[in-house]
């Protein structure tokens, strides 16, 4: 799915959280967004998902304004934080519900869950513990598994590697790469860890004060370019 941002602004009082004159993310791109705390990354994701209204401008998904249409929702999934979960359900109940909402039949649901087994962990699926009582990492796994279960054309994730152990990080990286390749999916994610971003993303957007100040294409020099950028910021502050 193609994402186009046109003169997109989101202001909170005096703070300009997002200010992007023009940006296109092509269908099938795997894009990482980095930037310091408060740079506007989460707000950008929320604007794309129509979770907050822009102050000005538009977000178009495959040419359709997200504020005016709803068809894109059936082809999009996201996990931004644990408010996406339902605290009083078990992981199994929550995932079953997500499968039903997205209209997956029983066989498809089971097959997709099976494909996620290494990441999700069968014990997590079998537990009668409510989502609210899981560890932060296991809540993150359930939320990410739900987003992947849908096999969306657009997948939007906010700090997906946060809270995950190293094994789960590796499995998630592999699952995201596979999903992009098999579905030609567009994947947009944020991270504070440059090595994770450089290892996964083919294009990296750097945000600062709501603006995109760098648009880096993956390559041998991407890590150095990003490290130099963040080192420069720490000297300046
Ligand atoms: N609901 C809100 N009300 C007021 N200000 C907000 C709100 N949401 C975000 N902001 C402000 O917008 C700016 C961008 O915040 P945002 O959460 O998008 O940054 P971020 O890059 O995701 O930060 P972090 O890396 O710390 O998660 C910040 O100054 C923040 O305080």
Automatic annotation (TrEMBL):
<dbReference type="InterPro" id="IPR003439">
    <property type="entry name" value="ABC_transporter-like_ATP-bd"/>
</dbReference>
<dbReference type="InterPro" id="IPR003593">
    <property type="entry name" value="AAA+_ATPase"/>
</dbReference>
<dbReference type="InterPro" id="IPR027417">
    <property type="entry name" value="P-loop_NTPase"/>
</dbReference>
<dbReference type="Pfam" id="PF00005">
    <property type="entry name" value="ABC_tran"/>
</dbReference>
<dbReference type="InterPro" id="IPR017871">
    <property type="entry name" value="ABC_transporter-like_CS"/>
</dbReference>
<dbReference type="GO" id="GO:0005524">
    <property type="term" value="F:ATP binding"/>
</dbReference>
<comment type="similarity">
    <text>Belongs to the ABC transporter superfamily.</text>
</comment>
<keyword id="KW-0813">Transport</keyword>
<feature type="domain" description="ABC transporter">
    <location>
        <begin position="3"/>
        <end position="234"/>
    </location>
</feature>
<dbReference type="GO" id="GO:0016887">
    <property type="term" value="F:ATP hydrolysis activity"/>
</dbReference>
<keyword id="KW-0536">Nodulation</keyword>
<keyword id="KW-0067">ATP-binding</keyword>
<dbReference type="InterPro" id="IPR050763">
    <property type="entry name" value="ABC_transporter_ATP-binding"/>
</dbReference>
<protein>
    <submittedName>
        <fullName>ABC-2 type transport system ATP-binding protein</fullName>
    </submittedName>
</protein>
<keyword id="KW-0547">Nucleotide-binding</keyword>
